[in-house]
Amino acid sequence: WSFGIGGAMLLLMNRLYSLRIDPQSEQQGLNVAEHGATTELLDLLGTMSVHREQGDFAERVYVEPHTEVGQVAQEYNRVLDRVTSEMQSQQLAAEALSRAEEKYRSIFENAVEGIFQTTLEGRYLCCNPALARIYGYDSPKQMIEEIGCIERELYVLPERRRQFQELISLEGFVRDFESQVYRRDGQIIWIAESARLITDADGNPTGYEG
After folding, report:
1. Do 149 and 122 contact (CB within 8 A), yes or no?
2. Which end of the chain is more exposed for a tag (fewer CB within 10 A), N or C?
3. Apex CA 205: angle with CA 203 and CA 210, to 5°?
4. Longest alpha-carbon distance in the chain
5. Is 136 left (phi over 0), alpha (psi -120 to 50) or beta?
6. Per-position b or e across 23-47, b if 16+ CB within 10 A of its CB
């Protein structure tokens, strides 16, 4: 009688109002979900969750002295200090790099001398406006697109390009290497090149710049 009537009443009550709490309240614990109580561990996990979700590490977690959770919180704050320091260092480095790039680009764009980078095979990778003007082109883009082979299309004596490469292979650079070249309009002019070999991280040659 007790089991039958009690079981039926509980089934009926459960249909009208769930007797079991929701999963989130189960995880938090009834002292927190029902009564608003808290613990050091819950406070620590809550702050860590905010850090994870928002990516803002400015707020430090509360340290309860002389407890195991307090020791964990203290160590976590030290980690936050290190992360913040590293982030500030990286930001300063990025700003310095940005300023250096802007300065280099300004020099590159406004220099009177022609500046270039080429492949080993003899194609221009980039050049500044001054070099394009020297060779009679309206823009660096036009020059890069129209000169497909420096040896055949630019040098009056193609062997000068090979001599240029041989000197760099011996010394790693050349200074005031004089040659005759064709401008876009067919006019022949004299140039003096100073250039060096470019290598990758493993020391393999990748091109020239000068």
Report:
1. yes
2. N
3. 115
4. 116
5. left
6. eeeeebeeeeeeeeeeebeeebeeb
Phi, psi (degrees; rounded to nearest 5) at 190? -95, 140
Instruction: Quote the pTM value.
Output: 0.55
pLDDT of residue 109: 82
Measure Cα distances from 137 to 22, 42, 146 in Å.
74, 69, 9
Residue 18: in which H helix or E strand, if any?
Answer: none
Measure the CA–CA gap between 39 and 192, rounded to whole angstroms. Answer: 77
Q: What is the pLDDT of residues 145-156, one digit of tens each?
A: 999 999 999 999
Asked if residue 167 lies in contact with residue 207, where contact means CB atoms within 8 angstroms, the answer is no
Please provide the DSSP assignment of 28-76 as one string.
Answer: H-HHHHTT----HHHHHHHHHHHHHHH----SPPP--TTSHHHHHHHHH
| Distance from C-alpha of 161 to C-alpha of 152, rounded to nearest angstrom | 9
What percent of the chain shows pLDDT beyond 70? 100
Q: How far is CA 200 from the centre of its chain?
A: 19
DSSP character string of 110-152 = H-SS--EEEETTS-EEEE-HHHHHHTT-SSHHHHHHH-S-HHH
